[in-house]
Amino acid sequence: MNRTGKGCVSRDVKTYPCIAVLALAAALSAACSSARDAPAGGYGQAAPGGRPPTVEELAAKVGCEPKIQIEAAELRQGHCRTSAGEFFLTTFATQQGKDEWMDAAPEYNPHLVGNLWTALSSRAVLERVRQKLGGDLHLKDHRTGTPAPG
């Protein structure tokens, strides 16, 4: 409690800092996992067909110079602010790291999901970002794509 008798955190505080902390926790958890524990079939390996995109490469596609928030072996995260809106771009070194991060992602925030990357923001912003980046919009279950309208 502060001196005014109110809680220390305002209800108006955005969830972005909390998400960054959550991403860091997932990265540290994944970094502590041993590569020898990865299942066969390349689950813990980088994506086949080349390296995953960097935060900077994804950001360039939407006209952003990202402010890097997290720089770790398992993931990198940058914050972007463009005419499309504000969003976070996160890239992952392995599919396992991405899956662990997605499992810990807040259920109430939509994500735009690509090959070893995610974007996090409001649905309206993600719809605009999706036009440049592609990806699947995940509204609740972050491992399942959004069904086609119909």
From TrEMBL:
Keywords: Signal. It comes from the Bacteria. Residues 1-35 form the signal peptide. This is Putative outer membrane protein. It comes from Planomonospora venezuelensis.
